[in-house]
Specification:
46% of the residues lie in helices and 23% in strands. By secondary structure, it is α/β, with parallel strands linked by helices. Strand 7 (190-193), helix 10 and strand 8 (216-220) form a beta-alpha-beta unit.
Amino acid sequence: MELAQLEAFLAAAERGSFRRAAETLFLSQPSLSARVHALEQELGVPLFHRMGRGVRLTEMGKAFRPYTERAIEALRQGRDLIDTTRDASGGILHIASARAIGTYTLPSILERFRQDYPSIKVHINIGRSSNVLQMVADEEVQVGMSRMLTHPDVVTIHLYDEDICLATSPQHPFAIRGEASIYEVAREPLILYDRDSSYFVLIGQVCREAGISPRVEMTLDSIEATKHLIELGMGISFLPRSSVRHELERGSLCLIPLKEGHLVSLPTSVMVRRAQHYSTGLVAFLQVLKDMYGADISMLDG
């Protein structure tokens, strides 16, 4: 059963004539008659009484007509939805983000995206980087933002490197002196964020490379809680630079360079499921990332 056959059936039912129906659809009368006949053959019943000067529906044709009308209307609505999405003037974009990115970086991206594409709604899922990758691979979301991870079915595009910095209160000796040694850090009470996070893994790697064992006194599940305890002078921590922007502006936290030049940096990426075609909404979001971070979205070509 083909759309062209259903359209021919409805046109003939409305016009009461194969000739007038053919003119409406810009077809020859034999072509339209052939489409109606093929539909009748498939259904196994006659849909029209053929009369000398026109046609009229059989009882079966009358029963079939409302279903055909609903099918054509549903297809029209589907076509309208595709057109709307193609024009990037509406639709929903599903995004998954790692927690720190979703808290401190994604809001500014979404603000820019909303300015450029105000009719596209955005739904956000927050999880660990590994969860974000899986959501993209399983097509639960259209785009993910997390640390750099790879998957054979996912295109991973580098966005920026997030510096992980030593943070203290302004009253701490490190802040007063303006620097610290990694070996001095090992003697300080250290507050760390989430043992399963990328930040924790990277900090542990730096400490191992320096041959030290950090004095971890607290492990929290929130960067915000970690910052509050540092402000209270209860310890020091390594935090993403993007997470302390407001504290640096108001002077409640300080970032301390390490004498040995140790620099912890976490590559951050955007991830998209490999496909032959991408929705205009997704392409628009990637264009915003290209404008803001220089993301190489040409990797999606082909």
